[in-house]
Each structure stands twice: as C-alpha cells, then as structure tokens.
Specification:
- By secondary structure, this protein is an alpha/beta fold.
- It contains eleven helices and nine strands.
- The strands form two sheets. It has a five-stranded parallel β-sheet. Strands 2-1-3-4 form a four-stranded parallel β-sheet.
- Helix 1 crosses helix 5 and helix 1 packs across helix 10.
- It is globular, with a radius of gyration of 19 Å.
- The chain starts with 13 loop residues before the first helix and ends in an 8-residue tail after the last helix.
Length: 316
C-alpha cells in the first residue's frame, strides 16, 4: 500500500477536504476510542509548541496509541549534530507515524521523501501548517455550515504566518473572497497572491484595519506578529501592535461572524473580546483534537467506515 503523508494542501482535492471534515465530525461525537491500540505516534518538535504538540499527543492518547518523541531538539541527538534524515530514519524504526514541526521550510516534505512511515507536517518555518488548516476548515464549516462563498478577513502577519498560507491554498476549491489586512512589511507574499490569481481567488489588500472591513467578514482570522521570525528586532517593534481587535470594533459585525486565531495571542485580540459571542478561538483550539485524530487515522489507512463501525468507543 502506498504511504500516505499529510504535508501540504497544494494537491488536496475538494472531495478529500470534505471527507476529512466528516471524519473529524465522527471524532467529535466520540473522541475516546481504542482504535489505535498497539500503534506508536512520534512527535518531533524542533520548534516550541503548546496547542499543536499537546493536541497531537492527546489525539494519540485518546485513540489508544502510545506517544514518543521530543519537545526540545536540544534534548535529542540533534544537539550532537544528527541530521534530519538520520533522525527520521531512526524514529521510523520505533513509530508508525511521525508528526513533525521544524524551523526550515520544506523540512516536512523532505522528511516524507526519506521516511518509510507517514509524516504529518506540524508546521515548517513560515511555509505551511496543514494540520492547523484542517482544524481551521473544520471550525469554519462548523460555524458557517459551509465552506462555499465566504468572505474571509486575514489580519496581521501574513508574511510569516504559515497558517494563513495553508488556508489560502485549501480554500481555492470553495470560491472565497479574501481580505488581506497587513502592514507593508508583513504583506501576503507575492507567491500566494500569484497563486490566488492563477486559481481565480478574489482578494483585496488593506493596510488599515477598520470596522467596515470587519462588517463584510464571515470569518475574521487574527494572527500574531511572530517575533521569532524577525532578524531585525527594530522592525518587529515597529509592527508588533499595529492591529488590535477590540470588542467595540465588532458592533457592526454579521451575526454569525466568528473571530478565529491560531494562538498563541499576544496583544492582537483584547481580553474584552473573549466575552463577545463572535469570539471562537478557544473552541477552534478544541477542534484541533478532532481534526488531528482524523489526520492520524487517515494517514494510517483507517477509513471513515472503520471509524463508524468502531466497537472500541469509550464512553466518558
């Protein structure tokens, strides 16, 4: 059987995306199972992470798998000079699937080419973050009832924000209209704007973050300005607080509009927004469990029919 990786949305079909949403729905109904009993999931995190790593590990544990790996490359043989290739080959001796985050763009793709077991991209540099995108798509579908014909406003760090890069690629199947709101220093990279033009995706660019823009949105997707991506800290200081969403800015928002954020946040969403009915970023993070349960099972060849007929459901 051909090895199945989860590295990018670039070649993922509309049918596959909708299938993965249905699979995640099954896990939302019953997240606790023993369907992966006897399997081992490795989490290799070369960059810091809270939600992504813990949700992958929780997903594995709730499905009955064992978890191995590291959350700090300094505590592994990487600190001794071991190459990515050798690490992947060694860990694949012990695990059935590897979820990997790496600071170098393209590292997950490379790992998938050398690994005999499935690779899940948990974020590679400023490039892609497909597992976050899967939970974003699930959340958008959950709140809007569709992925079709939506106005999506992406705000903040669009240059280094790998979550928004993946979302733009994944939404190509669903006729979106994007509003890219960013300072010039953090504008959406030209390669993704070119991608939009090639795919017929409508988009507008803005440098001002206004209530009028918010009022048009079905989804308002805030992002953190990522200090760790800047080589010039003076440049970071100039843009770190350029856009701050405050509750009063949501007065004219559509009733069903939801505010999303891949988290962690710093200053870009004021605390008073948390109590607003449009806020949905905590529920979004919870959806990471169901989406990542779906991803792990899918790369291991477990189908939605297997899940629906699964006798190992554990009721709370």
């Amino acid at each position: 059987m051909k090895k199945h990786d989860f590295v990018t949305f670039a070649d993922m079909s509309k049918e596959k995306i909708l299938y993965m949403i249905r699979l995640a729905q099954e896990f939302e109904k019953h997240p606790n199972r023993d369907i992966l009993k006897g399997k081992v999931v490795a989490t290799l995190f070369y960059e810091p992470s809270t939600r992504t790593r813990l949700s992958f590990e929780t997903a594995a544990n709730r499905l009955g798998a064992r978890v191995i790996g590291f959350s700090d490359a300094k505590a592994s043989s990487v600190s001794k000079g071991e190459t990515l290739k050798d690490t992947i080959l060694m860990v694949s001796n012990y695990a059935d699937v590897i979820a990997m985050r790496h600071h170098i763009e393209g590292a997950a793709q490379y790992a998938s080419e050398v690994s005999p077991v499935p690779i899940i991209n948990a974020g590679d540099g400023a490039h892609q973050h497909p597992s976050q995108c899967m939970l974003d798509l699930y959340t958008i579908y959950q709140t809007q009832g569709t992925l079709e014909n939506l106005n999506i406003c992406l705000v903040g760090d669009l240059k280094y924000g790998r979550t928004v890069h993946s979302l733009v690629m994944a939404m190509r199947h669903f006729n979106p209209t994007f509003h890219f709101v960013a300072p010039a220093e953090l504008a959406m990279p030209e390669e993704y704007k070119l991608y939009c033009r090639e795919q017929g995706i409508r988009y507008q660019e803005h440098t001002d973050f206004t209530e009028d823009i918010i009022a048009q949105a079905d989804i308002l997707y805030m992002t953190r300005v990522q200090k760790e991506r800047f080589s010039d800290l003076m440049e970071y200081e100039q843009v770190k607080n350029v856009y701050i969403l405050k509750r009063e800015m949501l007065k004219g928002a559509r009733e069903n509009m939801k505010v999303l954020h891949p988290l962690p946040r710093v200053n870009e969403i004021a605390m008073d927004v948390d109590e607003d009915p449009h806020a949905y970023y905590i529920q979004q993070a919870q959806n990471g469990l169901y989406a990542r349960e779906a991803i792990i099972c899918d790369v291991l060849g477990i189908t939605i029919d297997d899940v629906r007929s699964d006798p190992t459901i554990i009721e709370k």
